[in-house]
Design goal:
The chain is of the alpha/beta class. It contains 11 helices and 9 strands. Strands 5-6-4-7-8-3-9 form a 7-stranded parallel beta sheet, with helices on both faces. It has a two-stranded parallel ribbon with strand order 1-2. The protein is globular, with a radius of gyration of 22 Å. The termini are far apart.
Length: about 325
Amino acid sequence: DMIQRRALQTRALKALIIDEADEMLNMGFAEDVERALEGIGSANLEREGRKTQCLLFSATTPPWVKEIGRQYQEDALSIDSTTETGGSRVATTVRHTAIQVPPGPDSKKAILEDIIAVEISKDVVATEEEEAAAAAEKAAEIGDGEEGEAGEPVNQIAAKVLADKKKTNSHMQQKIFGKTIVFTETKREADELVSGGVFKSLTAQALHGDVGQKQRDATLAAFRAGSFNVLVATDVAARGIDIRDVDLVVQCQPPRDPDTYVHRSGRTGRAGRKGTSVLLFDRRESRDIVNIERSLGHGFKFDLKGPPSTEAA
């Protein structure tokens, strides 16, 4: 838009960086990207042979991304960083779990908070052990008792920690519950999870296409600061989110394609930290789990589980 309105001069542009190029296609920005590249290409003709360097970063390489490279890059160099992980497109720092739940959206809502509480408690314990090995002084930052008493019903775990966290500061609250991003397919689903009484012990806010830019910025700033625990988002709203300390990603149903799973699960396990990706599915969606495993290849397998139980806590 700025190029078309001549508000942005591209003649002196030395480099153009397009991040998450594959997601731009899925979100309907393909034509915008191509117009921008064409505008920069025209400006290059006026610069006496000097050319703008074009860098494309993409977690996946669908045909559209490859075609962009062929059209707008000369002598392009392709760098595949997945060779460092044995060719896997998903981060090795992420634990991938698929939990089978009873059919119907209400069944997922009923156990969503328990799943988050159980999975976060695992990550907190693991993270604390790593931090203690690297820096002993950090081992005492979390108090005892956040995992609940033996035989305690799983749906009481989050409630107990909530009572404890009211006596502590925001840092301790964040340390206990961490940060979770829950992905939904629609804006309506996101709003229903946040306002429908699903979260009784955790605090949550929604982020989707109907959220204005000012509110979006405020929501993300509050999430980064630990003011609430769960960000419920759609794919469109989550684009460009870079929050390093996300502990858990929950996908309420299998995505439409494996590339979307790669992007969603990649919101955790960043900057060398460990994270967990949980995918919820019912028996009718079992084939989707197999398809994702086959598509990602390189021995990728989900850790298949049932809904959380008292023993899991």
